[in-house]
Amino acid sequence: MASAAVLSGGFGLAALGFAAALSAPAAQADSTCSPGEATTPECAPPEGMPACNAFGQCGQIWCPASGMTPVAGWDLSRCHTFYFDPNSPATKPVMISGNPPGPPPPPSPPCIPLINCLPGL
Q1: Where are the beta strands (DSSP E) in 9-108?
Q2: 113 pLDDT more than 50
Q3: Disulfide engineering: 98 pairs with which of 2, 47, 49, 88, CB 3.0-4.6 Å?
């Protein structure tokens, strides 16, 4: 009975050590930067804020607490702008640092009340 208790306790300690090892990689960045703080100087993406091009491709924002794998070489204490390579397969998307290349989208048409916009909105 005593050996069963020792063996059971050993498995419990091993499980705790395994759980701690699994949770350790999640805390790789010490930064508090999040998408909501991406406009503050210490968190702002060095590549600029996300933007879209005329082809409908848009940049996105990655921050240390996002849980996504970062692009190699990124500073893991601040947010970054990226887009997905449109030529990569959907099953294995490739992240590219920065905003997508190409001309910016055309400006939106002017507001004409009751035609293309509602007053007060």
Answers
A1: 60-62, 80-84, 95-97
A2: yes
A3: 47
